[in-house]
Amino acid sequence: MRVQFDKLGIVIALLAAYGALWASFATLKPNRIVQGQAEAMLQSLPAWAGWGLIGVLVLATAAALFRTSPWIKLVAAVAALAALTLSIGYAATFLTPAGNSYARVSPASGFWILLFAFALLAADAITRLDPPPGMRVLFLVLAAAAIGALLMSGSWNGLSIMKEYSGRADVFWVEAGKHVELALGSLFAAVLAGLPLGILCHRVAPLRDGVLNTLNLVQTIPSIALFGLLIAPLGWIAANVPGAAAIGIRGIGGAPAFVALFLYSLLPVVANTVVGLAGVPRAANDAARGIGMTGRQRLFKIEFPLALPVILTAIRIVLVQNIGMATIAALIGGGGFGVFVFQGIGQTAMDLVLLGAVPTVALAFASAVILDALIEMNSRVPNGARSA
Amino acid sequence: MIEIDAITKRYDGITVVDNVSMVIEPRTVTVVVGTSGSGKTTLIRMINRLVEATEGAIRLDGEDNRSIPGYELRRRIGYAIQGHGLFPHRTVAQNIATVPGLLGWTKARTEAKVEELLTLFQLEPKTFGPRYPHELSGGQQQRVGVARALAAEPNVLLMDEPFGALDPIIRAKAQEDLLAIQKYFATTIVLVTHDMNEAFHLADKIAVMDKGRVVQYGPPAELVRAPATPFVETLIGDAERPFRLLSIAKTGAAAEPGEAEGEPIREDRSQQEALADLIWSGRDALPVISRNGAPMGRVTLDAILKRAARPR
Question: Which of A11, A159, A281, B27 is 20 to 30 A from B191 (CA-CA)?
Fold first, then answer.
């Protein structure tokens, strides 16, 4: 039997080889803001752990390189990712000189490249397995539980990013709450306003172009500019509308961030509602009227369910976009993970930047997986796209 | 009984249906034919008020169709369209159960009805009930469309080119099924088509529409015998006239006592089929048998040809 190579596997193997052999694995810094000393994998770990990690990585790379069952690839990827994350935590304890509380250890480029390579392998394996939507969410939950367990176990506590966290644990969760509140709240408001607006645009054709063009225009304003533009009107409202200030409306802070995210979210929601409703088969609509559905029954029982996958796609776009964009809100005092990003940039403390960036990426990724699963569950019917 | 009384529909001053009056007898099949743009679809859509008439009135069993809200009226009238219009996100059973659902039938009654209809349309309820429309063939989808229209046992069934999307073989089968269903439920059917063969095959009475007016309304034979306008004559087709006459008469009506050789023909076959048999087999006469196979004499080429000649 001829041995067959996997095309993506070759890329993963090259990345893994570069990450493990040439790039450095961890960086040791005398304190949190200076440039550090990069260490190779075998220098970062005690001999047994270093060779053990290399052994796991070689096996996983072999699984990636050859054409085998996706299950084997998935197991190999998970094993490699687990070995990597445990090792980096161990490297932190190993590299930090005893009794030195200023020294910091962070993952270096090699770690990130390896992490990326095996995450790619895992993603590829899952794609090939083509699990049903529920299973994908289960994978996500398992991954989240594993990461949670890792963080709770304290094996990462030596890492710089966790040291940044431990000094700000209470602030971190407050900002996390604000971040989610901003992203989800503005999405919720956009759906609440966008759905009826989309339905209206669908029913009243002359309105459609005007509304969509206006929303398009809003979309082209850079986010920082929009935050700035909102300061004046919201400040005026806070000063002149009784009760506005009491419910938190101010020129800076959460209010303009919320309004800006809401405005950005409207276009996808309205546009996809219009597109989704327009995609409802004419004959189905005519039949619905012909057999005696009222306008409302037709909307809720026929048009809306058929347009739902397209509308959910908009919600997915908006949610991922909002989670990313909410980071900017920190600039105008809106809070969120952006607080750590901008503080970190200000202090040239890259690990603090990571403390803001990593949860943002994780949150966006998790929302995307969950909403993709939702979309698939709701679109299995029309056009024979999916055969059971 | 459907009484259409001087009904007119105008869109922005353009008259689409022009002062049409006709009476549709209960438990009959009435076919409305005409070229596209003749107003035939608009006419039947005014019966269930998918289109509101500009002038005139339509009465169903003596009751003005504007006496109840449009959606309630439409729940009482079956409606089937070209391309079936099934709801793609609902199963076959759910599609058929739509109107019973709107009317608030009990679950047991609805389920029984769905099963009855599926069986009647030769779709095994256990197999086809849980399927989605896209998993069915075109002919099966069309049958489900008609089944859905009949679910609430309407007295009247409106059909707008229901077989337009089917291939000829499935279409012929669907037409046979429709006639059987019509007898079974004793439904009054009003069907729109531009296919004259279909019209002659199905109709008790044909209404020919031209430019918004009904130019002739009567039994198929009358249209052939005495076309009211040159348009009706063109629609029927000069070359088709004798065959159209034969297509609407049964072989039994031309049978006479006597013997004949060869393959027999059933008395309920059309005379057109008898003629085709005679020509094809090169015989002068065919034995005629009844539906259960009893001999009923013979039918001769002469007798058929006489019946195909211009009536005097």
Answer: A281
CB contact under 8 A, B85 and A306: no
Contact A278, A208 (CB under 8 A): no
**Please, where are the H alpha helices in B39-137?**
40-47, 70-76, 92-96, 98-103, 107-120, 125-128
**What is the interface pTM, i.e. ipTM, of the complex?**
0.82
Residue of A nearest to B145 (CA): A287
Nearest-Cα residue of chain B relative to residue A378: B89
Distance in Å, alpha carbon of B305 to nearest chain A alpha carbon? 45
Please tell me the pTM assigned to this model: 0.78
**Residue of chain B whose alpha carbon sits nearest to that of A287:** B85
Separation CA B43–CA B39 (nearest Å): 6
Statement: A7-160 belongs to CATH 1.20.140: yes
Encoding tokens for residue B38? 């003749």
pLDDT tens digits along B59-81 = 999 999 999 999 999 999 999 98
Residues B80, A278: Cα–Cα separation, whole Å: 22
Q: What is the pLDDT of residues A232-254, one digit of tens each?
A: 888 888 888 887 777 777 777 78
- Say how far apart CA B39 and CA B227 lie, in whole Å: 20
Share of chain A above pLDDT 90, in %: 34
Q: Which CATH superfamily is domain A169-387 in?
A: MetI-like (1.10.3720.10)
Q: Could you tell me if A291 lies within 8 Å of chain B, comparing CB atoms?
A: yes
- Quote helix, strand, coil % in chain B, to nearest 5: 40, 25, 35
Residue A114: its pLDDT value, please? 92
The domain limits of chain A are 7-160, 169-387
Q: How far apart are the first and last CA of chain B?
A: 33
| Cβ contacts of A5 within 8 Å, gap of 6 or more | A65, A66, A67
